[in-house]
Amino acid sequence: MRPEADLVARTALALAPRLHQESVDVFLTLGSGLSSVADRIEDPVDIPMAALPNVAVSTVPGHTGTLRFGTIAGQRVLAQLGRVHLYEGHEPQDVTRMVSVAAWLGASTFVVTNAAGGLEPSWSPGDLMVLEDHLNLTGATPLIGVLRDEAPVFLDMAGAYDPELRAIAHRVADMQDVELRDGVYAGLVGPAYETPAEVRMLRTLGAQAVGMSTVLEVIAARAHGMRVLGFSSITNVHGEGVSTSHEEVIEVGGQAARRLAGIVLGVLEEI
To answer: Which of 27, 88, 162, 178 gives 227 a disulfide partner, CB atoms 3.0 to 4.6 angstroms apart?
Structure first.
């Protein structure tokens, strides 16, 4: 089995010619129903992820399996329209490989988005949340087996979600008259949605939103020294007798995408 660094390098070298050998400033991952954020990218170049070596392609509806490269506010942006997940049968490093590839290509900032279930009863579907922290409840990490200088990577995750970028996001949201909530995101494996008992547990642990992605990607990004800004689109709010469907997640996520795109664009104009 090839080491992860070798796989990442081979993928990056295959992708670079499709980006006209340009470096990447910002890597953007778009969750369920949020791919329209990439419509803000100027002079776009689309690359099917299936055309790249060592890259898994999502089987989840609403995840197109495409990379889009171009500019936003003068920043060279590589956007991943749809991600892969542990619940699809992938290993942690499969889930995070594109983050590592983007870092290899020069990306210093990671903007990650997801569709999430709300845990605060007072919140509403369509709300937007900026991540201030996360709970990795997947039981996995992309750092297992990774050695640097022949030692495991002991990664400081305090301040993983960049305070300066969060402040900029709030300032932009205020200027656009968009309410942007703060909260902790709980990452679970899925694909089963949470039981009522699990919802109560997550609230007790201090989470405001829950989903099936993001946490491993953020760990990988921080291991590469990238600044991280995370957003959740609250697609449903857990309550007694309230059911959840993937169709609802995609529909509400799509409705929130326009407001989220405005915030992302405003942030990129300021950094």
So the answer is: 162
236 is catalytic: yes
Q: Is 36 a catalytic residue?
A: no
| Dist. CA 240–CA 248, nearest whole Å | 17
Q: Single out the catalytic residue among 236, 256, 257, 261.
A: 236
Output the CA–CA distances (angstroms, integers) from residue 17 to 168, 173, 217, in the order listed.
Answer: 33, 36, 25
Query: Is 170 among the residues known to form the active site?
Result: no
- Give the span between the Cα atoms of 228 and 217, in whole angstroms: 10
- Residue in the structure block whose two tokens are 């090839």: 2
Per-residue pLDDT for the chain (271 aa), expressed as one digit of tens each?
A: 578 999 999 999 999 999 999 999 999 998 766 777 888 899 999 999 999 999 998 777 655 789 999 999 899 999 999 899 999 999 999 999 999 999 999 999 999 999 899 999 999 999 999 999 999 999 999 999 888 877 888 999 999 999 999 999 999 999 999 999 999 999 999 999 999 999 999 999 999 999 999 999 999 999 999 999 999 999 889 865 556 666 666 666 677 888 998 999 999 999 9
201 is catalytic: no
Catalytic residue selected from 12, 102, 103, 212: 212
Q: How many domains, in total, are found in the chain?
A: 1
Is 88 one of the annotated active-site residues of the chain? yes
State the CATH number of the domain containing residue 86.
3.40.50.1580
Domain extent for 94: 4-270
Is 232 marked active-site? Answer: no
